Amino acid sequence: MRERTIASHFVRAALRGGERQGLDCAPLLRQAGIQAALLDEPRARIAPEQFTHLLQLLWTSLDDEYLGLGRLRSRRGTFAMMCHAIIHSRTLDKALARGALFYGLFPEAPGIRLSREGDWVRLSVEDARLWDPDHFLVESLLVIWHRLASWLIGQRIRLEQTSFRYAEPSHASEYALLFPGHRCFCADSSSLLFHARYLAMPLLQDERTLKQFLQHSPADLLARPDSGDSLSGQIRRLLGRDCRHWPDLDGVARQLHMSPPTLRRHLREEGSSFQELKDQLRRDLAIFQLGRDELSIQVIAEQLGFSEPSAFHRAFKKWTGLTPGAYRAQEH
C-alpha cells in the first residue's frame, strides 16, 4: 500500500553523514516538505514520497550515493553504471557476481560478497570500513541489493534470514517491512540468506526497462517498504482501507485458510500481532489522509473507525507524539 509511512529515525540517520560533512540540511528538509520539528519526536513519521525526495536531494548535494557514510564518496551515477554493467548477464548468479566485482574496483567501498551454503546463498555487506553509526548505509545496501535482484528476475526473492552484526535496535519493529522473514542480530556478518535456486534464473530485464527503473532508483527502493509475501503484508492487504468494516481475527484466519491459533503463532514468529497490525495500518492511513486537505479531521476519525474525534486525537498522539491538528499544521 502506498500509504506506508517512514519512521523519523530513518530521516535522522540519512542526514547524519551530510551533517558530518558540514552540509546545512535545513533547506533540504524544507524542499522535501519535512518539518525539522518532526525529527525531534521519535514517534513521528513521514510519507514515502517525502523520504524519496530527501534522499535524492542528499545525493545531489553531496554528490555521494553513500550519503557521507563511507570513507570515500561514491559519486552519483555509480549505481546506474553498475546496473548497466550487469543488465546483459544471462543469469542472476552472473549479474550479482559482476555487480560485486564492479564495486570491488573502488577502494574503501563496502564489499559485496556472495557465498554458497549448501542449498542457500548468502549476500554479505562488509561494513567495517564505513562511518555508519546508525547502520543506515549497510541496511540500505541490503535492501537495495535484495530488491534489485528481485527486479532483475521478475519475482520477489524470498528471504530465509537477514543477519545484522549489531544488537537489536529500539526501532526493530520497522524491520518487518524492510526484511521479511527471520531476523538475527549480533551475527558474524550483515547479510541476506536466500535459496540458491534463484541464482540460475534468467534476467527478465533489458536496457529499455532499466532506463525506466533508474529514473527513481535507488531512492525509491528504500522509500517504499514492501512486506512481500510475509503474513503481515498479506493481512494488511486483506484489511484494506475501510477500517469501519475490517474483519476480525477469525475472519482473516478463514480467508488465509488457517486456524486463529495458527495465525497468532505465525504473527508472533514475525514479531507482530493482529492488534499491532491494525494499529499500524490505522496510523499510516491517518498520516496519509492528514497530508491531504480534502477531509476534515472529524471525517478522517470516522473513516478510521473512531466513535468520536477525541479518541482519534488520543490514539494519534500515542502513535506519533503529535495531535492530528498539530501534525497537519507541520505538513504545511
TrEMBL record:
Residues 229-330 form the HTH araC/xylS-type domain. It holds the Pfam family HTH_18. This is AraC family transcriptional regulator. Keywords: DNA-binding, Transcription, Transcription regulation. The lineage of its organism: Bacteria, Pseudomonadati, Pseudomonadota, Gammaproteobacteria, Pseudomonadales. The keyword ATP-binding does not apply.
